[in-house]
Predict the structure.
Amino acid sequence: MNIPENLKYSNDHEWLRMEGEFAYVGITAFAANELGDIVFLDIPTEGETLDQNEVFGSIEAVKTVSDLMLPVGGEVVEFNTALEANPALVNSDPYGEGWIVKIKVTDPAEADSLLDAEGYKALIG
């Protein structure tokens, strides 16, 4: 299973890639595999500022719908519009083209509470 070393991970299977004051958020390959074929994403929070671990949207697969949790607090500044036409990018490239939202991070220190790649590997066994 692909677990990039340069990302941080939440216990809820979201990943975080910091880029200055901004961060990209998506779900892990493990989560995408567990959900199955992704068919729709609902991100009604664009433009809102949310706290760490707050729900920022939902992801719908053929067999289930799951909440998406923000790994760190911040303003949801962009939704990956490529996912509107092709939500399966979350399955095929979860750490690249399948990113879900870009946020302006409120407190970068919150990222310190997230798991590194080794910690995430231990979480999923």
Summary: Helices lie at 29-35, 82-85, 89-92, 117-124. The chain has a mean pLDDT of 97.
